[in-house]
């Protein structure tokens, strides 16, 4: 499934739309095509501030449009520079709930020239759905997105 999504992601990123429109389309594609992706969004470092700001996303609107570094799964990834797979959000202390239907989450940092400038964040209503295939695929997506930023 992820293999067939890769060319679709590339074609969206190659289009003539502006960056936000492309990222929006990527979010919608992933949410639609991957059964266990229920909310897909990008967060980016907010200028010089030690916080993340919500960018394009697909899924229910969230109150968490700004997340301080260190807070929640997203804020921890902003600091750790590492993928964070959460099989069961109930088992996490430092977690920011966006919706009561969410059971698991994966956050993969996005690097431009080796600098962590944001992340892709996926929420799932399924318990423990993420495998290394998700990680490799989302690293691919972020790697391609980095080229257009
Ligand atoms: N759950 C995230 C907050 C962002 S929402 O999932 C959209 C976190 O703990 O950082």
UniProtKB/TrEMBL annotation:
Pfam families: GAF_2. Belongs to the free Met sulfoxide reductase family. Residues 18-146 form the GAF domain. GO terms for cellular component: cytosol. InterPro entries: GAF, GAF-like_dom_sf, Phosphatase_reg/MetRdx. This is GAF domain-containing protein. GO terms for molecular function: L-methionine-(R)-S-oxide reductase activity. The lineage of its organism: Bacteria, Pseudomonadati, Bacteroidota, Flavobacteriia, Flavobacteriales. SUPFAM superfamilies: GAF domain-like (SSF55781).
